[in-house]
Amino acid sequence: MRERLTRARSLVGLGGRLVAQRLRQTAPRRTAVTILGIAFAVALCLTVSGVSVAIADQGSVAGSNVDYWIVPEGESSSTLPVSVGGPRFGDVHAVGDRLTSRSDVVYASPVSMQLLQLSHRGTTEYVIVAGVVAHDGLTVAGVNTSALTPGDPHYENGTYDGPWTGEVVISDGAGALLNATPSDSVRVRGQATSTREFTVAAVTDGGESGFGDVPVAVMHLSELQTLTGATASDTADQILVASTNPNIEDDLAGVYDHSSVVTRSDTGLTSVTDSDLALALAAAGFIVALVVGVLFVATTLGLEVTTDRRLWATLSAIGFSARSRAFLLFAQVGLLALVGGVLGVVLGRFGVFAANTAVGTVFENTLVAVYPVEFVGLGLTMALVVAVLTTPYLLWLTTRGSVTDTLKT
Amino acid sequence: MSPPAEDAVLSCHAVTRTYTRGHQHTRWRSNGASDRPDVTALEDIDLTVEPGEILGIKGPSGSGKSTLLHLLGALDTPTSGTVHITGRPTTDLTARERARLRLDSIGIVFQRFYLLSSLPALSNVALPLVERGVPKSKRHDQASAVLHRVGLGQRQSHTPGQLSGGEQQRVAIARALVTDPAIIIADEPTGELDTETGARILELFEAAAADDTAVVLASHDEPTLAIADRVLELRDGERIDA
After folding, report:
1. What is the ipTM, given to two decimal places?
2. Is the pTM of this model over 0.80?
3. Sorted alphabetically, which InterPro entries does this protein's record hold (chain A) (predicted)?
4. Of A246, A263, B149, B201, most Cβ neighbours within 10 A?
């Protein structure tokens, strides 16, 4: 056993000297190309994996603070954010309060969507108006509701006699259409009552959640219900629930008959970036990088092995077994792979940076790729896999032609 | 199969080596047939070599000298007949066993030295000891001692490129001697050296033989063969000295 270990250590040392000689003297360019080939393969793998992990991360963020939408049966996730005029739920404030009281629910808010006319300084536009029970962090149709007074003051236990806030938060799309800014007064024309004045509490970036420039306004639910005459049965289109419990979906499905539950990950843009895509990307990146790496190394080192055929014949003649020669060859390929792997890890970091920079020029504050520390291990493992897959071919090359023929020439 | 001669470290009996010409070009044919005739490089060779004996092999190019040396060095196996090396029939051994036999019992010296150009003389000589799993310090001690024996004690750290042809051949001989082999096989060992350097190389073979190592030398060169106890002459693969 000790003899084998000594032999293995010595062969690794010998392999290192042979590699160093190639780099310094006999084939510096070809050896450099081998190392760069491995580095390129590793960098490619890590960059694609970085994108995959970033995509998978989006899913996990949604999963750690899941938003559930309780919607009437038949609503599809694609129509969910702008569901106007479909089947509605009743008694929604009570249901929302009951859900919010659960320890595993961060907040629950009924959401009513209406298409209403908003006017400001002579400009009148149709805008999607959402009524909500405001909570810090609640975002509806891409509009953050933090600027609204928390809760739904006008509702006051179903009497609709509470204080009228007259607050509305509008998306920047609506703001641009109406030329409205915070503190401006906008007139909202309801269906059941005369027009009411609202104060713009904030203009927010409607690009969030993919709504872009769609004109959206968000106000308290009871005030929207009052405007639209929906106070009698306290109705809303959907109920949004933010929960930390990943298993709450079944409970929510039982809140109303003929309802279904949709998660945030099923909606909007996130639906195209699910974990399957991340897995497919990672697998494709790994396979492509592996093929590129193996082809590079097989080609360049194949030439080296052919050039060195006298070396292999000499070692065989002086008594090196086929196993020792294979180990020596693997030591050389492994050392080159290690150097290429380290370089690839650095290049991969640069690739991720480049990808984020390139996308960042189009979409601000967007990370399309990440580079966790585990990628160092992944890169080196990738390089090792390239070495392992290439060695059999190189070994076959060393056995081509007999020792006696090689030493005669 | 006939047994080896009692005292012989090396023996051949009715050894024939035939090469199938054009094999590489025809092996994918379903019947493996070649349109070129086989070549018999050696035919019906008998010989024995005893410890401490120097056997010379002479003959013109293509006479079969190298083929015979490859068989005696366990680099190749005969098509028919038997070769016994230290009592072991090479035809019965696997490739791995023949490699071990070369490592333990045979030192081979080539006309072109075949040293590893990146390694200093000391590491070149120590190469067979790497395969034996000898620890670094021990193998360097052994290699250094042999280099002193061949007169290169002061040139241990020099790479082949920094050594003359004669010095390189001495390094090659030291590499062959470092495992203390029973047999040294040398193919044209002075072929690339001047007369004076060649003479000094031959002294090393004589010294090895004096230590009971059997030496088999193949050469065209009469002065080289002059150190041999016996000379076997080949022509067209057959012995003509008998």
Report:
1. 0.88
2. no
3. ABC-4/HrtB_transporter, ABC3_permease_C
4. B201
Check pLDDT > 70 for residue A36: yes
CA gap A275, A262 in Å, rounded: 17
Structure tokens that stand for A304 in this block: 């080296």
Residue B5 domain flag: no
- Name the H helices within A125-243: 172-178, 221-228
How many CB atoms within 10 Å of residue B145? 14
HSE-up of A221 (CA within 13 Å, CB side)? Answer: 31
- Asked if A18's CB is within 8 angstroms of B118's CB, the reply is yes
Q: Which residues of B touch A (CB under 8 A)?
A: 66-67, 70, 73, 75-76, 95-96, 99-104, 106, 108, 110, 114, 116-119, 123, 127-128, 130-136, 175-176, 179
Nearest to A383 by CA among A337, A335, A331, A319: A337
Closest approach of chain A CAs to the CA of B197, in angstroms? Answer: 23
| Cβ–Cβ below 8 Å for B102 and A311 | no
Residue A137: Cβ within 10 Å count? 11
Domain count, chain B: 1
**Cα angle for residues A193, A110, A67 (degrees, 5° grid):** 145
What would the pLDDT profile of B131-175 be if each residue is shown by its tens digit?
999 999 999 999 999 999 888 889 999 999 999 988 998 899 999
Range of the domain at B117: 10-21+37-239
Give strand pairing partners of A117: A126, A189
In this complex, which of B99, B176, B179 lies closest to A321 when CB atoms are compared? B99
> Which residues in chain A (80-109) have CB-CB distances under 8 A to chain B?
none
Nearest to B113 by CA among B184, B35, B176: B176
The residue of chain B nearest to residue A314, with distances taken between CA atoms, is B114
Tell me what pLDDT residue A83 has.
Answer: 46
- Closest approach of chain B CAs to the CA of A392, in angstroms? 18
**A18 at B interface, C-beta within 8 A:** yes
**Residue B225 falls within a domain, yes or no?**
yes
Torsion sign, CA atoms A265, A268, A274, A278: negative
Amino acid A268: pLDDT:
39
For A217-321, where are the alpha helices, taking DSSP H only? Answer: 221-228, 249-253, 275-307, 309-317
From B102, B110, B118, residue closest to A21, measured CB to CB: B118
Q: How wide is the angle at C-alpha B17 spanned by C-alphas B13 and B21, nearest 5°?
A: 170
In a domain, B2, yes or no: no
Contacts of residue A269, defined as CB under 8 A and 6 or more positions apart, other chains included, come to A209, A210
| Residue of chain B whose Cα is closest to the Cα of A317 | B75
Residue A61 has pLDDT above 50, yes or no: no
Separation between Cα atoms, residue A27 and residue A180, nearest integer Å: 71
Pairing of strands B54-58, B214-218: parallel
Domain ranges of chain A: 2-58+274-408, 68-266
- Looking at beta carbons, which residues of chain A come within 8 Å of B123? 17
- Please name the amino acid found at residue B141: D
Report the alpha-carbon distance of residue B48 to residue B70 in Å, rounded.
Answer: 15
